[in-house]
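Running co-folding for alpha-D-galactopyranose.
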Amino acid sequence: MKNHTISFFLSFLLLIVSCSSDEDEPIPDNKETEEEKRPTNLQEYNNTTDGLKDYYTADTYFEIGAAIEPSSLDKAEEVDLMKRHFSSLTAENVMKWSSLQRSEGNFNFTSADKIVDFAQANGMKVRGHTLCWYNQTPDWVFKDGDNTASKELVLERLRTHISTVMKHFKGKVYAWDVVNEAIDDGSGTYRASKWFVICGSDFIIEAFKAAREADTEAKLFYNDYSTVSPTKREKIFKLLKRLNDQNLIDGVGMQSHWNIGYPSDELVIEAFDKYTSLGLEIHITELDVSVYTADSDPESAYTTDIAQKQVAAYSDFFSLFRRYKDHVSSVTFWGLADNHTWLDNFPVRGRKNYPFLFDTDYNPKEAYFSVIEKLGS
Ligand code: GLA
């Protein structure tokens, strides 16, 4: 009884104290505290271990990914960067057909497994890229001796490849770019690839059917570039609709090889609205923001002017991703840091580019601070 009286009195006292402190000092706004904790310069960055994936949590926003080669796993700085910032990995090359099945029936998963094992050991997801593409696919796929293979043979090989690869990675790769770049950039609907010339557009449907069958849990994506260009967008949309009507697809992969002047907010918004009208998820699959806006631009150092334009572009793009966070479930960069990017050799050979949030020494750039600054807005 005595104990009860004391504890009642103490609770009462606590209530009074907490009420009066409520009036005097407002409860600290959690968002502001979080915001204050986010670094705004290199020194503050070095004083925390948090990274992109901690600010852009998958629950509230989206997975943050990077495409890597297995050789990155032997470089301490790159491993550190991966662990600190990314919740998802993509193989830049080693899951493509030419790496996994160079000659018929000889599957080699060694390099791809290295990435998957690393991701699993570090609690990261893996996006599979890619099962069917016109590029980096060996010639034997389309040949029967010296002749062109028949449609039946090519489709049989496609089904075998997809089923073998997806079963190998079942439970470890949560999403696949099943078909990559099948839509034409010009006036045609479908790209005149060997796949299309031999099989017509059936190869796309067959690829998705084989994928659904091989791993019912995996999320299936159609992946392409220029997905915000209005003409290509409409063609992609029709294909997505065709696949979606048969329940063969879960999302669209927007590669997003963009630059400091392209695309406009309007183009991105129109594309997001169009694709999500089908109820599909959006993955930004290959994001990089080139510092050049034209093939004819001469090579340039990473000047303050370019840096500022890149800050503006990245802030804009991420603010759109945040706005569409209920649909955009993954944002993957096509690389880690400015020391390694395919853009150094494309579209102009040997023209150094600086497309990422981290510089050639793996340090965060202004663009990094800008994408984490306005979170919540
Ligand atoms: C395309 C492909 C990627 C990669 C890039 C260039 O976007 O989808 O796999 O090859 O080109 O590196």
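Result summary
The first helix runs from residue 2 to 24.
Confidence is low (pLDDT under 50) at residues 1-24.
Job closed.
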